[in-house]
Amino acid sequence: MKNNKYLFTSESVSEGHPDKVCDRISDMVVDSYLSLDPFSRVACETLTTTNKVVLAGETRGPKIEKEEIINKVRECIKDIGYDQKGFSWKSANIETFLHEQSSDIAMGVDSKDNKDEGAGDQGIMFGYACTETQELMPAPIHFSHKILRLMAEDRKKGILKGIEPDSKSQVTMLYQDNKPVKVTSVVISTQHSKDLNQEKVKDLVVPYIKKSIPENYIKDLDTKEIYINPTGQFIIGGPDGDTGLTGRKIIVDTYGGAAPHGGGAFSGKDPTKVDRSAAYAARYLAKNIVSSGVSKKCLIQLAYAIGVSKPLSIFIKLDEDNEDKVVNIKKIIDQNFDLSPRGIREMLKLNNPIYEITSAYGHFGRKSSNKGEFTWEKTDKAHLFKL
User: Fold this and answer.
1) Do 6 and 228 contact (CB within 8 A), yes or no?
2) How far apart are CA 53 and CA 96, in angstroms?
3) How far is CA 36 from CA 217, 248, 295, in A?
4) Contact assessment for residue 306 and residue 372, using Cβ atoms and an 8 Å cutoff
5) 114 confidence band (pLDDT: 50, 70, 90)
6) What number of CA atoms fall less than 13 Å from residue 41's CA on the CB side?
7) Cα–Cα distance measured from residue 107 to residue 104, given in angstroms and rounded to the nearest whole number
8) Using 50, 70 and 90 to split pLDDT, how confident is the model at 2?
9) Would you state the pLDDT for residue 119?
10) Residue pair 273/44 in contact by the 8 Å Cβ criterion
């Protein structure tokens, strides 16, 4: 559609949000096993509530003592910044009920099809990229993440005093001709010490909006449309204020609602689970396609069946309906990318312990590092798609 105007909103949550505390712990368990054996299998779910953490799930690989896992859980909580009466890394009651993986599931995953192990489950996964930001991410979710990430960095450095770990952000943008033109509202709710009132919290937080969003998007932003702790105060937060569970922030983890989601969460799952690895592969493909200049947007869907190695279908949608382009792109993918579970892991080097860092501020739009993290964000294959 041309000449259309609409508002679109995305939200993010900080690493101290109860659900994100759970994602962090679950991904820590994945990394703990992969660091000892890159072929470990892990499916870990975490629950948090007032001064309590419960882990449950299945593993296959090296033996890790419960006490070691519990100590690492405390390290996660400490790093996030929780040492409060209602939730503290020192005193939290931590229980783990991890057990060995079902033999039936293992049989399905390890079955051979075209000399490759099968997918760990059935499901659909989506990848998306667009030219709205340098990171090829939708602008609202990118800015929502950045606000909270910068706040957390300064909180941990002692620069942002009186602000506690649990925070949420929300950015609404006006789109015209399918392009973001300005921010129309920002909402930030952040846990704070009892010594701060709403006005003081606003004074501390508003500068992070300006640090995170380019000036051309917020120069006309009405100060009345900046909502900081709209309820007045937010002292009791984190798992003491709300129960947390692994995998409840899947839209925050991906594209902020700007693209479909297959329904499967990422955190707590080793890379044999296509919920995670195929979503990373789909983002990798979409980002390289957009980076090549062939399209300003790209949506990719991959579908899998348990025990079957190759995707059952590949769907591609570009910013304009051009069937010839789509056919050519599919040929390029078929000829150059192995989208079997093993092929994805080898292509993106996913058997490494690289997942704990993904648990907050999005799995996409991040920088790949020399530690092997966020390999799916590389654009090293863009040249293949220059049609």
Assistant:
1) no
2) 8
3) 46, 28, 41
4) no
5) very low
6) 20
7) 5
8) low
9) 76
10) no
